[in-house]
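agent> fetching stored inputs for the TNX docking request
agent> found them:
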Amino acid sequence: MRLGAALLVAGVVVLGLAAGVDAGEPSVIPQPVSVQRREGAFRLTPQTRIVARGPAWAEASKLIDFLTPATGFVLRGATSRQGDEPAIELTLDRNLSDLGDEGYTLDVTRGGITIAARRPPGLFYGIQTLRQLLPAAIFSKAKADDVTWDVPCVYITDTPRFQWRGLLLDPARHFISVPDVKRFIDVMALHKFNHLQVHLTDNEGWRIEIRKYPQLAQLGSQMDWNLRRRGGTGPRRFGFYTQEDIRELVRYAAERYITIVPEIEMPFHTGAAIVVHPELGITPGPLGALPLEQRWYKTRGLIAPRPRAVAFFQDVLTEVMELFPSAHIHIGGDEANTEHWANDPEMQEQMKRLELADAHELHSWFIARMDVFLAQYERRLVGWDEILQGGLAPGATVMSWRGEQGGIAAANAGHDVVMAPTSHTYFDYYQGPPESEPLAIGGNLPLARVYSYDPIPEAIAAENARHVLGVQGQLWGEYIATAEHLDYMAYPRAAALAEVGWSPRERKDYDDFVGRLERHLQRLKTIGVHFRALD
Ligand code: TNX
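agent> prediction call returned; pasting tokens
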């Protein structure tokens, strides 16, 4: 049996060589649902036609943009295929219902390539797979000489396992420039990620222009107190996104079928806002009496949820909703030490007035004000799993970070969840022995552990598994001060997470993944991603 298989493989290899074809075995990441290898290869030449009609044409022009720099070919488009001319054809077909919104088939024969999908994102993902079937040099920004652009003949059928395949960026701790975010988005798209959560506000900085409160960004983006305390450094402590920057990023991401999910932290992790607007804090009088630069250590990072603070955050969310079309708006909700409210006379009075039993309920009450507010605009609140304490707001989606318990409880109560546990998705953690790694926040999260993750824990009842929207990897920025370091922390772990989020559970195989990854890293290298080398 084994010998037979070996002979068969040898036979295929010999056939391939005999035909003058060495297009290699497909090494696609994330692993598609099914890949049937056939003999031979399709050769891309300047004569190849790019064929598409109607809305498929937008994807075809992205394909041309992907293929042009490295090949130097001036690829011509057409709306239909003439006879048996070599072509790459993109077709949309509403009847391909098995493929869902993001699935595709990719049919490569010696005579041509066809990508078919029900909806445009499927064509886009088929194109990402096609890029990975070409030699790695296709990712070069300059014309690559002496390359034959062969694509191995295959038939691929592919759809994602989860609808939320996310990464989180944290420009609040160290600002990330617009071009660096775009580059990050490009690499995400190659891995078929579709959500990018951006942590826009925290104690260390407020990074989004809000027209109603202009000083939030103007002053709130100029702080480095907390970073200095932590030993964080680097050139990108300061900066914020103007509303124009945000619009541009949202547009750029949307072209790549990535939804930017804004995160505005409340009620904790709000130090930057409190420094600028002391009236939000627990002790507005004494804090406001201090000069700005002396307020940093005195905010406790926690607002007092009095009515004017509720109104303030709703004002902020109003502008956020105008900028971000995302169905989900993240309001943070993590790590609040509600003892500060329990011990505060004004908050005790407010709890009594609202008939709330304790400060956890006050936390829930505050989050629920945001939930109701967002729901009026048909948006859905997402928060870290602490929003479960004191009662979960009716429409809330939970992001489970302190392990899986929060996600399990929320899903079993019929709420949507995104799995983001520290144990498997915290890419700010060490990925090797700390003594041989750059300084990180702590933890230990090697590649294999990321890969091993299954976002549907057994403790979620089968009928509630559909509430697990997917999975997200976090790149918290306290110790990530440059774009190169961001790459190093993200890749290849994000490639492993891409497969967790996309590929069927039964198609996952770590050794096979690492084999594909070795070739995949050639692609990332050509793109200029500063990934961490394999052990
Ligand atoms: C906890 S995860 C936080 C972040 C930190 C991170 C560092 C979460 C909801 N809160 O503010 O950056 O740990 O690993």
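agent> quick read of the result: Residues 3-158 form a domain with the Chitobiase; domain 2 fold (CATH 3.30.379.10).
agent> awaiting further instructions
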